[in-house]
Amino acid sequence: MKLKDGYRSPEWVLDLVRKCSDDGSIFLDPCTNEDNNTKATHYYTSKNPTPNPWDCPYKPGGLVYQNHPYSDNLTWARHALDYVRLRRDCEYIVLANASAGTRWYGLLTDNCDALATLNKRLAFRDYKPPHDPVAGNQWGTALWYFGKNRQRFARVFRNSASITAPLIV
Fold first, then answer.
1. pTM for the whole thing?
2. Whole-angstrom Cα distance, residue 63 to residue 22?
3. How far apart are CA 119 and CA 113, in angstroms?
4. For residue 14, what is the enclosing H or E element?
5. How many Å apart are CA 114 and CA 123, to the nearest integer?
6. Closest of 36, 34, 8 to residue 122, by C-alpha
7. Which of 28, 70, 152, 166 has CB 3.0 to 4.6 Å from 64, enough for a Cys bridge?
8. What pLDDT, on the 0 to 100 scale, is given for residue 56?
9. How far is the C-alpha of 110 from the C-alpha of 149, rounded, in Å?
10. Residue 27: helix, strand or coil by DSSP?
């Protein structure tokens, strides 16, 4: 894993993500840091790698949050989609750079129930203590939502992002 892949989600984003959950928590984080800064009930790290989606913990209605290593966007996009297809009654939020025109971005966007494109660039937190903000993020950030509560997702993120939903053609 590249060092930049260890950047942590800012706490304000995690607070909003938790508000998208029925119980205010993150059930599963398939790629968090060693100290589980997302406070997910179940989690995987680079030292304890994520199994195949069908072997991951599952709870009906449980929220999965994924801020994956950006060095492997396509693999992680497929992981999220596989998990969602297997667990139709879960909620899943993927945070990644808003890199329109890439294959993985299209996969997530074409299959999500809602998309929030943040109104500002994120200051990710460093993977090393004291986890200071990392300057110089050159990309926009998006969150893809998969689940039955896209209205709640939109309400939670509406003050921080532009919200769109895929069109059915």
1. 0.92
2. 8
3. 19
4. helix 11-19
5. 23
6. 8
7. 28
8. 87
9. 17
10. coil
CA distance 72 to 14: 22
Three-state DSSP state, 147: coil
User: Can you tell me the distance from the alpha carbon of 85 to that of 45, in angstroms, rounded to the nearest whole number?
Assistant: 23
Q: What pLDDT does 4 receive? A: 56
Question: Is the pLDDT at 133 greater than 80, yes or no?
Answer: no
Q: Show the tokens assigned to 126.
A: 């460093």
What DSSP line would sit under 39-65, residue for residue?
--SEE--SSS----GGGS---TT-EEE
Q: Which residues pair with 161 in a beta bridge?
A: 118
Question: How would you class 140 by CB atoms within 10 Å of its CB: exposed for 0-12, middle for 13-18, buried for 19 or more?
Answer: middle
What integer is the mean pLDDT of 20-33? 94
Distances (CA, A) of 95 to 65, 168, 169: 8, 23, 26
Nearest-angstrom CA–CA distance, 60 and 114: 20
Residues 6 or more apart whose Cβ sits within 8 Å of residue 129:
none
Tokens at 25, concatenated: 């928590």
Place of tokens 């706490």: 11
Q: What is the mean pLDDT of the chain?
A: 89
Do 14 and 67 touch, CB atoms closer than 8 A? no
CA–CA separation, 64 vs 10, rounded Å? Answer: 17
* Helix or strand holding residue 23 (H, E): none
